[in-house]
Automatic annotation (TrEMBL):
This is Target of myb1 like 2 membrane trafficking protein. Coiled coil: none annotated. It comes from Cyprinus carpio. Pfam families: VHS (PF00790). GO terms for cellular component: endosome; membrane. InterPro entries: ENTH_VHS, VHS_dom.
Length: 150
């Protein structure tokens, strides 16, 4: 019986450790689920769970940005794009400096967000407004007193 309990404890510990330190598995799945174009509305529970993972894991901010970029880059499904932008906005509002550094990065702004609203992609006005709002909020991050000053 003792061997069995030890085995269960080790298995649970490894599983917890893996999820706790790896956004890639759990967070990527949640990001894809939260930005699924078949959703009728934003899933705020998923969005906040993504924020929790970002805040609680070492690689969370970097991995979350990778997942959001994957959903945004070249995506012609503007429903998915809007959901991804909502996840991004939620994370900006609920995650700290470690996440803000990735969002306020010029390469992300110009290489991902600006590309969404180019005339070539011809996005709906609601997508354009959301992107412009996020870019404007990036400027707000620059002037914050937390030393982000990018």
């Amino acid at each position: 019986m003792s061997f069995f309990l030890t085995f269960i404890f080790i298995t649970v510990f490894r599983y917890y450790h893996y999820l706790h330190y790896s956004y890639s598995v759990c967070g990527l799945f949640l990001t894809e689920k939260a930005t699924d174009g078949s959703l009728q509305n934003e899933d705020w529970t998923l969005n906040m769970e993504i924020c929790d993972i970002i805040n609680e894991t070492e690689e969370g901010p970097k991995d979350a940005m990778r997942a959001v970029k994957k959903r945004l880059n070249g995506n012609r499904n503007f429903r998915e794009v809007m959901l991804a932008l909502t996840v991004l906005e939620t994370c900006v509002k609920n995650c700290g400096h470690r996440f803000h550094v990735h969002v306020a990065n010029r390469d992300f702004i110009e290489g991902v967000l600006v590309k969404i609203i180019t005339p070539k992609t011809n996005p709906p006005a609601i997508v354009q407004d959301k992107v412009l709002s996020l870019i404007q909020n990036r400027c707000g991050l620059e002037t914050r007193s937390d030393g982000l000053g990018l």
